[in-house]
Amino acid sequence: MFAASDFLDLQHCAHSDLFADCAYVWDVLKKLRLYFQNHSFGCSGSFTCAGHPYIAPGVIIGEGTVVEEGAMILGPAVIGKRCQIRHGAYIRDHVLIGDDCVIGNACEVKHSILFDGCEVPHFNYVGDSILGSRAHLGAGVKLSNVKLKQESIRARVQGKEIETGLEKFGAVVGDFAQIGCNAVLNPGSLIGRRSRIYPCVNWRGFLPSDKIVKENQIFDLL
């Protein structure tokens, strides 16, 4: 339980080797910084700059991706093919973004892995998190990654807590999951495949696959 395969189709991640030997899906975040240090990612493809975004050395961008005016990509980061990096996007350190992804206006992403087809389109914060294939964040969604007491983060599952060994850990959002506008996922949240969290919900803990959360009440997805 809570292996990467429980949440994610690794065929939709160009860096699936990162998940090898991870007992829990969140363990991959412990390996991300070293992965950038030891891995060769090649060169950028033929991408387009619409205006004058800031792209730091150490950023690899795939063919067909468009990076708009006002975007800032500090890196190190790897961005896949045919992505949209829109005006005002802020991509910080140690970020892996798959193909066909959207990082939109006023969105910040750091130390995270986004699988193919993710949409992070409007006013989102994604810190120390993993987003599965076709996962979608509504406008204003925040994946909070630090506890107020700055303690090590524990995953809450059926009244029990699992120590993650991480002081920064936002969320795992499974394939095809959708998070409604202005919802907040508290540190260590785990969202199963195809599940939906309605707007303005403040969520903490594990949500199994194919569920709907409305006002923190859980329903089966029909």
Rg = 16 Å
Strand order of the largest sheet: 2-5-8-11-14-17-22-25
User: What do the pLDDT scores average to?
Assistant: 95
CATH architecture: 3 Solenoid
Topology:
Elements lengths: L27 H11 L9 E3 L3 E2 L3 E3 L4 E3 L3 E2 L3 E3 L4 E2 L4 E2 L3 E3 L4 E4 L2 E3 L1 E3 L4 E4 L2 E3 L2 E2 L4 E2 L4 E2 L9 E5 L2 E7 L4 E3 L4 E2 L4 E2 L3 E3 L4 E2 L4 E2 L2 E2 L3 E4 L2 E4 L2
Parallel strand pairs: 1-4, 2-5, 3-6, 4-7, 5-8, 6-9, 7-10, 8-11, 9-12, 10-13, 11-14, 12-15, 14-17, 15-20, 16-21, 17-22, 20-23, 21-24, 22-25, 23-26, 24-27
Antiparallel strand pairs: 18-19, 27-28
Provide an overview of this structure.
The relative contact order is 0.13. This protein has 222 residues and is mostly beta strands. It has a single domain (4-220), classed as 3 Solenoid (UDP N-Acetylglucosamine Acyltransferase, domain 1), CATH 2.160.10. The chain is globular and about 50 Å long. It is built from one helix and 28 strands. An eight-stranded parallel β-sheet has the order 2-5-8-11-14-17-22-25, with no helix packed on it. The protein has an eight-stranded parallel β-sheet with strand order 3-6-9-12-15-20-23-26, covered by helices on one side.
